[in-house]
Amino acid sequence: MLMRFLRRLHYWLDARRRAADLAEEMAFHRAMLARRSLGEGGSGGRAFGNTTLAAEDARAVWVWRWAEDAWQDGRYAVRSMLRQPAFAAIALAIVALATAAVTCVAGLFDGLVVRSLPVERADRLVWFRDPSFSYPILTQVQSNLPVFEGLFGWTIERAYVDWTGKGTQLVSTDLLEATPEIFPTLRIKLAIGRPFEAQDTTAAVISHQVWTRHFGAEPSAIGRTIRVGDRAFTIAGVTPAGFFGVAPGLAPDVILPVSGRHTAADLAATTSAWLHLMGRLKDGIGIEQADAALQAVWPAVMASTTNPGMPDERRAVYMARKTGLEPGRAGFSRVRNRFGEPLQLLMGLVTLLLAVACASVANLLLARGVARRREISVRLAIGARRTRVFRQLLTEALVLTSAGAAIGLLIGSWASALLVSVMTTTREHLALDTDPGWRMAAFTVALVGFISLVSALPPALKVTRGDLTGGLKETGRPGPLLLRHWSAGKILVAVQVALALVLLCGAAVFQRSLSHVLSQDPGVDADRILVVVPDATAAGHKGPALNAFNEQLLDRLRALPGAQSSSLSWMPPISSDMGNWTQRITIDGIALPPTDDRFVYFNAVSPRYFETVGMALRRGRDIVDSDTAGAPGVVVVNEALTRRFFPDRGALGHRISIGKGASRQDLEIVGIVQDAKYRTLQEPQRSIAYLATAQTQELRGDRNLVAEVRATDVTAIGTAVRTVVRDLDPRVPVRIETVAQRIRESTINERLIAALAGALGGAALLLACAGLYGLLACAVSRHAAEIGLRIALGARPVSVLWMFQRESLVLAGLGIAAGLAGALGLGRFVRAMLFQVTPADPLALAAAVAVMLLVASAAAFVPARRAASLDPVVALKRDS
Q1: How many CB atoms lie within 10 A of CB 530?
Q2: What is the pLDDT of residue 281?
Q3: What is each CA distance from 754 to 377, 522, 643, 749, 757, in whole angstroms?
Q4: Which of 148, 137, 208 shows the shortest CA–CA distance to 184?
Q5: DSSP assignment of 116-159, as one string?
């Protein structure tokens, strides 16, 4: 075995000399046979046989036959591509397009949904379903559930960090706040330094990227001070390179102890659910066993964390809360929750596009194989084995698709980065590794093999199984024309049309869904409102200082040239990521049954808020300056609330109450305003109550308010607004955006799906159009004589034109019928992603069908016109 390997390796190292020696030896044997033939009375021309085959058999002793054949086939494939650049360019473009689309979406899907956390034995991790819990629940589970090797709580928040520690260069950063058990549970070995412990309330662990970017990867970074908001922390350690935390899509720059920014009262609150729980199971314990143990102790955990003063109604709701264990290998992420389903949908769409591309390449290879049928028949006739020719055709396809896939991989990597930037908003920065690693390289190799096999197998089988005699005699013989028989090319084109129509229907339905979303009335003048979000608490403003800052900010904004009106509020219009405020209300002091759903959405606003955002006052009055903390409590409600709670009577003058005991507030309804969206455009109309900021206890001294500025040109006034905040306090970071921008970012999922579905549908439509055009153009070329004979016998050009148009429309019609059935069958998987439209929306399906028919007719027009304008004399002579 070893000697054979060395002999073959030696041949490859000296292949040229060995080939010359073999040729010389074969020439000697031919001469000897000729001399023997003369000696026996012959003519000296005794046959030596197939010299090429004999040479190949001789070389098989020295070389790996399969390797030499593959090398020869590859070189021949490259030369063939260079001889037919148009064919090669089209095939490369198709494969590159499909590969780029698949690798782009697959890379994001892998990084966000599939890839394991970069920690040791990630398969032993689990997270608690629900998924938010209070700190007391965490401590109770840690004490009562011994199935875990470690258990920690964590949350990710956006905050302002100053890496210099001086509090003057605050930048928005993601923070991972966690309990100290995070490091031993995940088995994280820090690059330098140490993890924080239970008593370390001011210690911080920074990411490896921050350590490199801001501290030059110097060990002296340990012990340096950074500021997070208005609090100082000391750097204790640095995470290892490649560690991004426990939430794919987010890569926090700092890990802080939960006690660093939360008081003892915050940690003791049983009704505040803000921690996610993750643990590592002990060896030998499965997730089912651990979940059973959790369910056994869960009622006791909930009972021990119940607030003693909690009303019976709320206690019953609290005790009814359930949870369970989920595999934590890939972590838990709100980014995955947001984009996971869209990415799954896009994976399905690019898979359909890949199928269309395979059919397109197969059609190209089939047409090329038919054109080469005589060449292949000659090769078979002179002794080539069918398996050898078949293998060569597959190799040609593999070389072609490999080159296209390499181009597609580069384009896909760039497209992945572009897609991540599209998914990133001003309030949430996505951190996903889009560089193609070994996983994506392996995936691309498998994809290339799949495309090659699917695209080349049918044409190769058809060409190599053909009649050898017929192939040798074929000299442009016309054969049956058009619809007289079904061919593999027609079947592939019909499949292309069907798959393309599925993508077109999906694109049309998602475009209709997006149009319904964007047609929703936000209830405010979105294009003329600037939202100003200062974070004064990050600069140390608390209590009276914070109230003074808010009042001064409002006064200065109202004095700005170009500002028509300004206001303050708890939540801006389209609150989106800033959350919501809901409470149960009591109407006119009447006790309500526990089963009655009286939850209402609240906002706290300053005077002139409704004027600023453009909400019309229907009845009553606005919030005014006299609605101070000492004045009687007032509230303005929207029309949805009056329809819900006062359907048969006027709401003005009635009283609603929120809170209980000392925190109870009795509020008189003094005005009714038009309906407006609260968080997103997609939500149903909420019942909303607007309180006066001066009368809202929750806002006194520890809550940043949002400012709204109404202006004719919001772009021009943005710089002036930023200057106002900087003049008040240069340490205060501020985010400025329009309501229109908030609406765009709140509809990112719908926009992303509609845009990509449209792009994929357009690409599939283009491929189907090319398939129809190629099939009919080939038919015109191969059947020119028959078409010329028809014209010579009196067929009018319009009838020839219609013959090809009819062929195209029949093929398109068959594909459309199959495509509609597929679209309706797959529609149930996307129903939940649609807004006010069904997968079987008749307008969307009709538009998709109309576009496909129009494109089919257009694809047939050029070859049909060429056929109708043929000169019968020239056509008949060319085939004679």
Answers
A1: 24
A2: 93
A3: 50, 21, 35, 8, 5
A4: 148
A5: PPSSTTGGGEEEESS--B-HHHHHHHHHH-TTEEEEEEEEEEEE
Say how far apart CA 655 and CA 668 lie, in whole Å: 4
pLDDT of residue 789: 65
Output the six-digit token pair for 30: 């031919």
Q: Token digits for 6?
A: 């060395």
Q: Given this model, what pLDDT does residue 475 score?
A: 44
**Are the C-beta atoms of residues 266 and 272 closer than 8 Å to each other?**
yes
Q: How long a stretch of residues is the chain?
A: 880
Least Cα distance to 147 among 124, 130, 117 occurs for 124
Query: What is the 8-class DSSP label of residue 113?
Result: I
SS3 of 552, please? helix
Distance between CA atoms of 736 and 719, rounded to whole angstroms?
9
Residue 23 CB neighbours (<10 A): 12
The pLDDT score that the predictor gives to residue 729 is 86
H/E stretch holding 363: helix 334-371
CA–CA dist 76, 107 (Å, integer): 34
Contacts of 775 by beta carbon, 8 Å cutoff, 6+ apart: 363, 367, 489, 490, 493, 811
Rounded to two decimals, the pTM is 0.76
pLDDT for res 634? 92
Residue partners of 292: CB distance under 8 A and separation at least 6:
none
SS (H, E, C) 479-539: CCCHHHCCCHHHHHHHHHHHHHHHHHHHHHHHHHHHHHHHCCCCCCCHHHEEEEEECHHHH
The residue ranges of the chain whose pLDDT is under 50 are 471-472, 474-484, 880
Is the sign of the CA dihedral 473, 477, 483, 488 positive or negative?
positive
CA pseudo-torsion sign 54, 55, 58, 59: negative
Distance CA 115, CA 765 (A): 33
528: burial class by Cβ within 10 Å (0-12, 13-18, 19+)? buried
